[in-house]
Amino acid sequence: MYVSNLSLHDFRSYTELVLALDPGVTAFVGHNGQGKTNIVEAVAYLGTFSSHRVASDAALVRHGTGGAVVRAKANRGGRETLVELEIVAGKANRARLNRAPVSRTRDVLGIVRSVVFAPEDLELVKGDPQARRRFLDDLLVLLTPRLAGVRSEYDKILRQRGALLKTAGAARRRGSSPDLSTLDVWDRHLAAAGAEITAARIDLLHRLRPQTAQAYEQVSAGQGEAHLGYRSALLGLDSEGEATPEEESALTDVAQLEERLVEAMARVRDKEIDRGVSLVGPHRDDLVLTLGGLPAKGYASHGESWSYALALRLASFDVLSDDDDGGPVLILDDVFAELDVRRRERLATMVGGAEQVLITAAVAEDVPESLRGTRFTVTKGEVTRE
Ligand SMILES: Nc1ncnc2c1ncn2[C@@H]1O[C@H](COP(=O)(O)OP(=O)(O)OP(=O)(O)O)[C@@H](O)[C@H]1O
Ligand SMILES: [Mg+2]
């Protein structure tokens, strides 16, 4: 797919921006801090309601204003859909599709599909499990928008259950025996939503795994074998601390997962009451990245970590392309400066399959000549076509 018309109102540094975009390669070039990333961030946000730079929406709204509007026309296989999103700081987003309000904002998720590769992605390899869980979950939202609902339901359950655990812990410390019947009910809720998320993640992992290995091989020119695993308290672990392959394939069964989550919670309940937090479930799991059998985190070099992060994004691109004829928009935010000339050229050949590629770069020369498409100069929020 590609995005043809993009308009921003009070989004980030932009008061008003209207841009006509074409399929193929488009590069936004300009000095630091001029507003390049803000443009591509808006495109990516439309699909997942999530930014690659910030966790909260407040920073997306232009400072001093109450709300932002992002509008884009998604073109997929000759079909046009106008997606409009109003982002109000601290409140739920409001959305319109083809100018008509939608009853659930979630209905617009996944219509504008994109994959962003950015310097922040180094966190996927070097950072905490949270970054990797988010990587999986954002991709799941694009593939199966309904899961965004399950995700927020799960977060709500976690908060409720956490509060109950704290109350029970306080009662226990006072010497009284807490009433645990309500907790049983919340265990079931947590297990139901948690099982759905876990099963979807493992299914996604199966799709990402071969693509990541292949992309890593291409990016690194055959140096090292990238392998993805899933780590969960629920699963039997092999010596590397990953789920064994048999475990993994058994665990795409939601009903079975749900039972195992309930059992696992029963086992750790005492500890949970002591600590006042939920200790099992997808919020504690991790995507394990290994390179040549060693954990990438802690072992991989800077360049290898970069290649790994890039491989994960290219694999996401492949998974989305397999799922949908047009494939997603590929966004490369400020990445060429970080790659050596050989890697740049390899990346340039690998992105050839994308219907639309949006690139940002501070230095025009960093972008390989083979990716010369439409070029915009961005200076103090003024975007001009060269
Ligand atoms: N909510 C906001 N309100 C107003 N201005 C904002 C907001 N968020 C970001 N900005 C401004 O936007 C500018 C950053 O824009 P952006 O990140 O797009 O720059 P860039 O061109 O990608 O730069 P670089 O080359 O350094 O990556 C900064 O000057 C920042 O102060
Ligand atoms: Mg930038």
UniProtKB/TrEMBL annotation:
Coiled-coil ranges from the UniProt annotation: 247-274
Superkingdom as given in the UniProt entry: Bacteria
Record keywords, A-Z: ATP-binding, Coiled coil, Cytoplasm, DNA damage, DNA repair, DNA replication, DNA-binding, Nucleotide-binding, SOS response
Principal location class: cytoplasm
Metal-binding listed as a keyword: no
Start and end residues of each RecF/RecN/SMC N-terminal domain: 2-366
Subcellular compartments: Cytoplasm
Protein family (similarity comment): Belongs to the RecF family.
Protein's UniProt name: DNA replication and repair protein RecF
Organism: Oceanitalea stevensii
